[in-house]
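note to self — DONT lose this again. spent like an hour looking for the file last time. sequence + predicted structure for the chain T wanted, 187 res
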Amino acid sequence: MGWNLPQHVVVPMGGGSLIIKIWKGFKELEKLGFLNGGPSKIYGAQASGASPITTALKEGQALIKPQKPRTVAKSLAIGNPADGYYSLNVMRESEGWGEDVTDTEIIQAMKLLAKTEGIFTETAGGVTVGVTQKLVQQGVIPRDESILICITGNGLKTQEAIIGEIGQPLVIEPNINDFHRVANQKG
């Protein structure tokens, strides 16, 4: 991108440390004079069943109220985030925002990313894609500006979240003949 930052960055938040590190890195690159143009707006993404940081942001609170996590996004299911306070500061300082999505929206976003981009993400990636969709639909992020969505893990880590949501995998014997048999089946 020619040392230009994206205008908007959507980051998954569990404990809140990743969003802080991304913002810190951007600020350091800016201070060193490596960047052209303005800074990014940083958006935090959480699952609705574990959203203490985005809840505090939406309520205008400075302190995080702990929650008992209930979500398929296990990697983000942190009810009392150690870096929640600092994450709030990043979203506010960058003039970004935070949002959360339901488990159903997470699964739908995972399926959308797999179908359109060929990327099988874990549930945290479904959170960031789902939150990005929501923020664009709300008009918070303009459709015609650059957006970076942080996809932080492979879907093989959280297969249990999509069982029953997609078709069953094909199982073949470990030989070339069985591979050809399955590959040549129609439909």
